[in-house]
Amino acid sequence: MPDLKYKEITQKIIGAAMKVHTQLGNGFQEVIYQRALAIQIEEDGFGFVRECSMQIFYNNRNIGERRVDFFIEDKICVELKALQKLEPVHFAQARNYLEAFNVEVGLLINFGSLSLEFKRIDNLKYKQNNKTDNPLNP
What we know:
With 138 residues, the protein is an alpha+beta fold. The chain has one domain (7-122): Alpha-Beta Complex (Lambda Exonuclease, Chain A), CATH 3.90.320. 33% of the residues lie in helices and 30% in strands. The model has no long low-confidence stretch (mean pLDDT 90).
């Protein structure tokens, strides 16, 4: 099995989400899980930005922005859901955000099912940026 980039960080984020899901269970709105996860990842010592606006570009032109639920340690995009079941469209959405923001690794986390669902998503179209790897600081 290949060594996954940022494996340790993503495992700790998933662990934080598991703590939240264990305590709250399923059935709340996404914003409740987002607030609880913010508390947990702060207590776990992560640097993060919550609901940060990230620019979307097409042919090097800004065409809008999207708020990502969490951008953790200037490396990982985390998209939260509170649905009974994740559908292929949710995976496609998360992958599209990674590509649009040029972020290498993301997590899709669903608090809405009986058991926490999570999926690591790697951006196969990631382009190394000479200035910075942080899409918030182009």
